[in-house]
Amino acid sequence: MKIDIFTLFPEWFGWLSSQRHVANVLATGSTIECVDFRRDTPLTAGQVDDTPFGGGAGMVLRVDVLEASLRARYGVDPVQLRERRRVVALAPGGRLLDEQLVGELAAEPELTLLCGRYEGFDERILEHFASDVVSIGRYVLSGGELAAMVICDAVLRKLPGALGDERSAAEESFSDALEGNPEYPHYTRPAEHRGWRVPEVLLSGHHERIASWRRERSRERGASPPGPREGADSGDTG
Ligand code: 6GU
Description:
By secondary structure, the chain is of the alpha/beta class. Helix content is about 35%, strand content about 20%. A five-stranded parallel sheet has the order 2-1-6-5-8. The protein has a three-stranded mixed sheet with strand order 3-4-7.
């Protein structure tokens, strides 16, 4: 998979590329390349943003700047680009990233991620250049870079060679093998710590019982997602 990331902070992605499972995938021929869209701006002094029409706080990324950068990279009108490859703009109000979307993106041979900053993108970028607008949750980050890294992490670990043990991806949370449910609980040695015992079935060596116990726990977790931990301070002072 070839991932291009349009960002004002290309150096941040060096850290991502050095992480073990990402590095493993990059060693198999996948790439993460960053395009600093300040480099291709047609404006003076590296300007990429401007004040919003209608007034208000913050700055907005300009459509002409993104167009120049996409054209310089791909040599085509960016309006046509999204017919050839997914062009994903990262914005807090977009489609929520989930395992389904991660799977869709992981199936693409090439991806383009657009990272906004400031108050966000001029709407015409989303309307005319992006194939998808994606959010990683209903809260506001200072820019799309961390969201782009989340997407890269989640997508690349799906690819062959990312994980040491290929089985780890098959039965992980939200996989088809677990009917889309979260993963079952894991335990390791010691079998008892401060009186907290590992469930007996896991020590039984009985593979079918273990498998069915795990399926049940996974289903339970899917049916009732966690709230605050029992006994933990909720921070609610009433
Ligand atoms: Cl994709 N961008 C920004 N700026 N904030 C976010 C987000 C994206 N997803 C959640 N919050």
